[in-house]
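Researcher: Next sequence.
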Amino acid sequence: MIGVAPRVGAIIHSRDTVGSTQTALAEFAGAGAPEGTAVIARHQTAGRGRRGRQWWDEPGESLLVSVLLRPRVKTAHVPQLSLVAGLAVAEALERTAGVSPRIRWPNDVLVGGRKISGVLAEASSGADGGVTHVLLGIGINLAQREFPAEIEGRATSLRVLTGRSPDPGRILAALLESMDRRYQRWLVEGFPTLRQEWRDRASTLGERVRMPDGGEGVAVDVAEDGALLVEAGAGVVRRVVSLLAAAEG
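Model: Next structure:
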């Protein structure tokens, strides 16, 4: 991983309503937009998260942003960007709102055990297996006072946490600055240099988790390439690149 990218957020396209910031940014990417281009919106009518899940928001209550990245890496490295972005979100919220975020592997940011932010990294690759671009989507709950019943016990917002109306512009600026700094470091040095900081903010380590094959284990570490290491019993440690859920009980 070498080279220095243009500043993240150097070009920002602001929209009132979009289907999703990811879809809107994909159009700019296809037209040759430079790395660092971002799309922000007050509302998404078809926002999405990992595994095709819907991202719920009401107009003006969330920070919704997607950033175009063009790292010269193989697609296997792209999931690391979710971890890098999680660090950027956590730092931005800590600096601007005084909360204490934790990161749930691979792409959620929590405060008080409830989700306040999610990250979605979607890559396009060329015939040589190299990445042509990554659409890095970030959603942060800002001004919600309440949530739909199906997520009410699992989600939170800065307004709920602090009792104040957050400043979206200030949070966006802090997020882009933090993301830019960490992305530049990741390009040059890779994830291992950010690994300890991620560990220090992780909520997942020590938790019992459910793996894709249905088996359960305890998350014990994150590998240098960003994979989760899970103690599956009898001294067996498994590398996991996706989870079904935190295990119950």
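Model: The longest strand covers residues 114-125. The helical segments are 21-30, 80-97, 158-162, 168-189, 195-201.
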